[in-house]
Amino acid sequence: MKEDYVRRKKFYYRHIGPSCREIDNMLKKLQCSSIKYFVNKTVPKEIRLKRKLNLPNSISEYKYLNHINRIGKKNKIYRSYIGLGYKNTITPSVIQRNILENPSWYTPYTPYQSEISQGRLEALINFQTMVSDLTGMKISNASMLDESTAAADAMFMIFQEKIRKKQIDNSYSFFISDEIFPQTFAVLKTRCFGLGIHIIHDTHKNLKNKYNNKKIFGLIISYPSSLGEIYDYRETVEYAKRHNISIIVSTDLLSLSLLKPPGEWGADVVIGSSQSFGIPMGYGGPHAAFFSTHEQYKRFLPGRIIGISVDKTNKKAFRMALQTREQHIKRERATSNICTSQVLPAVMASMYALYHGKKGLIEIAKSIHEYAKKLEFLLINNISHIFQVNAFYFDTLRIKTDYINTLKKVAERKKTNFRYVDKNHLTITLDETTCQKDINHILSIFHESHNQDKKTYKKIKCYTSIHDHDKYRFPSFLKRTSNFLEHKVFHNFYSENELMRYIKRLEKKDISLIHSMIPLGSCTMKLNASSELFSLSQHEWQNVHPFVPKKQAMGYHIVIRNLQKYLKEITGFSGISLQPNSGAQGEYAGLMVIKHYHHSLQEYQRNIALIPSSSHGTNPASANMAGMKVMLVSTTSDGAINKNDLSKKVKENKDLLSVLMITYPSTYGIYEKDIQEIIDIIHENGGQVYMDGANMNAQVGLIQPAYLGVDVCHLNLHKTFAIPHGGGGPGMGPICVAPHLKPFLPNHPFQGEENCKKNEKTLTISSSPYGSSLILTISYAYIRLLGPDGLKKSTEISILNANYIKEKLKKFYNILYVGENNTVAHELIIDCRVFKTTNVEVIDIAKRMIDYGYHAPTVSFPVEGCMMIEPTESESKDELDRFIETLISIRQEIKEIEDGKFSKKNNVLKNAPHSIDILTQDEWIYPYSREKAAYPLPWIKDRKFWTSINRVDDGYGDRNLVCTCT
């Protein structure tokens, strides 16, 4: 009774799965008298934190919700016409309610196991189809982090492809049009610095004449431009094609409902953001960027590509195609990082397209354009001393006036934001939410600031007819004539009833945390508590433009300031940046900080990144993207970093050493007691140490990375700090740094102090100053709800749960690595390679687990043919026992093959998973019963997850690549 009462009062007893009684039982199984004794046995004493974290005490969910509501009201929701890639939009309620706020959609993992991810994969195929159709390109990926990083990856893709083909060398430059968004230019500049690529920054109009003698491998232009102008690029494109210059076009997706798509006038790559497709601004994100290109680039395309294949019965099946896990497989040769996607926002954007269809999108785009024309007409014909500069436009007017200062004061008083370009120009970007009332309001601002006659204003404010003007304010040859969204999926769901049913049909095809634990090593699929997520749906948090003055976003800055303070205390570092909007971006940002530091010491030659094989799989790709040379370091038989190999490579490359990238505890699931000695070796030879935060869930409250001597550490807020994985995104990857690296933290051209405050520092990682700011409220909630005691308790129980699984499985599976006291950290690896003699591969075990209702652990990483298991602290002992019973049962099924009861080719593992189609066939052709296939353990009958397809044929999908609806 007392325990139940405590659980109701303290949030961390709701977050942590096992009860006090269950914890005692697990400790007893491990022959430990207490949690304290267990931790002393598991975590090396010499590196442990000796004090309690200096954080606010935990508060109840009720108090937290009142707290975050009060903070949210400090955000001032002005009417924003700033543009720059961010607009007000309308999220259809059916999408907000059934996707954004639905744990079936926001708690699944990346769709590596296709058979239990068919819902998301179908939604992402719809997204790819939408993007390919609208941009006029043949192939698209399943989203990227934001528009700026999509542009940077497009440049990197072209650069790599031409380098490999030996069409160019390092003397070639990249041409960046000065009409692109400032934040995109800043991110491109950072990426070029890392790779040593020369930049030309000028108007596209000067390409032909001014740079005719320059060697240029690619260029990026904007359509429409950042100031709203729609240019005729025919001459630029013709020149580029003649000189083998690849063309990247940054575009507005909604405008392509009316405008001729870039793929039809010469683009090689088209990038942009799908934010205007029903995704709230959220002070910068998360938003799904898009990336489309020609088929010739399909094997160079960054991120994830969803393809169509077949299962073993020839039924259509979706899967991640081609280079899906190439950064894990290629290691030091990896150049693309798939952990750069925004699946949940991409799904929402695709559903927005389904909801509106082709006709709906055209009507929305027309409405925006009509209001822009109306506003221009009313301003120019009724306000003295102003001019509309853009000859052609879609949604953005560029106004020239001598009254900027007065207008700015009036607009601020009337709670309206424009983009103030310079002392004589501003832009006004209209959007889906614009109505006649908004036009009248804008007119009133101009009337007052320009001292116009109020009687005149009253006479013209109701003007509505513009039929005497051209239909479109862009050239007729740029009007779209080609079809798009012709597939039937975009014509079936105009009513809410039908769309809701479609969403639910897809939802039922995926395993998420609502079904069972997702035991993925290095991925930390813990509870995403409902109270932590409420702010995502609140008006005060959703509808803030990322470039508004700071005083309009005080609620955000309270959360940002406090979260920075909390994370610095947790890690022990003194500097932090919240800008990176994924773990992979955090890795890249940390490496670029180190690169800047070396350059500040005039040590330009330092470019070698040492990466142990026990480090996180995304590290090599991030190092390559930072222009570093990757050198792998071996591990010993017990999984520790091989100090002899490390010392040898450090000595051989002393003057070239830039960084050692480590994961702690390692991805082998052990705390290395010599970690500080290893760090000292690097520092003594002029290098820096980067810690991957993938396994921070085994450190919080027990270890501070800064105390170990680490220089940079990124944190996966979507792992350790409870932001949901969203089926493969969104995420956040802030970096924490030691004092000497603080001057090199990321900056941004729009820091929020004022709309257009420029910053000339080089390092910019993401489109917005604080990355995907909206979801920062989740991690803020996680820390406030748990408090210092709950955070430490979570770490302790995550380690306990992993060791309990190890202890229960050790009779049935070989545990690959353990620490010196026969313990593991928060994850463990079971060796499945020994089963190859019976023709059972690790993937067969993974697919059979689907029949038991489980997502497989991490397969073949970090060790080929093995499984890495991480239970997290949120799983109860009952759930752990069901998972353990599943793996024991599968081991017994393997033994039946070993004993000859079933053949090596036709058995329950090789045929798994068993879909409802197979199980309901009239003829049963398998040598085991239907019951064994469907219900191998009694409790499964009450919990059965029915997969919609059988095992997918991956090879077929790669040989016959189809990435859009057919």
Describe this structure in words.
- By secondary structure, this protein is of the alpha/beta class.
- The strands form six sheets. Strands 2-8-7-6-5-3-4 form a seven-stranded mixed sheet, sandwiched between helices. Strands 16-22-21-20-19-17-18 form a seven-stranded mixed sheet, with helices on both faces. Strands 11-12-15-14 form a four-stranded antiparallel sheet, covered by helices on one side.
- Helix 3 packs parallel to helix 27, helix 6 runs parallel beside helix 18 (496-507) and helix 22 (583-600) crosses helix 23.
- The longest helix is centred in the middle third of the chain and has 40 residues, at 343-382.
- It is globular, with a radius of gyration of 28 Å.
- The model is unreliable at 461-469 and 753-760 (pLDDT under 50).
From the N-terminal CA to the C-terminal CA, the straight-line distance is 59 Å
Fraction of residues in helices? Answer: 25-40%
Strand line-up across the major sheet = 2-8-7-6-5-3-4
Please tally the helical runs, counting DSSP H or I stretches of 4 or more residues: 32
- Overall shape: it is globular
Task: Report the structural category.
Answer: alpha/beta
Give the DSSP E fraction (strand runs of 2 or more residues).
5-15%
Number of strands: 26
Summarize the structure in short.
Helix content is 37%, strand content 12%.
Give structural attributes:
alpha/beta, 32 helices, globular, 37% helix, 7-stranded mixed beta sheet, 966 residues
Secondary structure elements and pairings:
Blueprint (H helix, E strand, L loop, with lengths): L1 H8 L2 H4 L4 H10 L5 H8 L18 H12 L6 E2 L12 H8 L2 H4 L11 H18 L3 E2 L6 H18 L8 E5 L4 H14 L2 E5 L4 H4 L5 E8 L10 H9 L3 E7 L16 E5 L15 E5 L11 E6 L5 E6 L4 H4 L13 H40 L3 E3 L7 E6 L2 H10 L2 E2 L1 E2 L4 E5 L6 H14 L4 H7 L35 H12 L22 H4 L5 H4 L11 H18 L3 E3 L5 H18 L7 E5 L6 H7 L3 E5 L9 H10 L4 E7 L11 H10 L3 E5 L12 H4 L3 E3 L20 E3 L38 H34 L4 E2 L12 E4 L10 H10 L6 E2 L6 E4 L7 H22 L17 H4 L10 H5 L19 H6 L7
Helix pairs in contact: 3-27, 6-14, 6-18, 8-14, 8-18, 9-10, 14-16, 15-16, 21-27, 22-23, 27-29
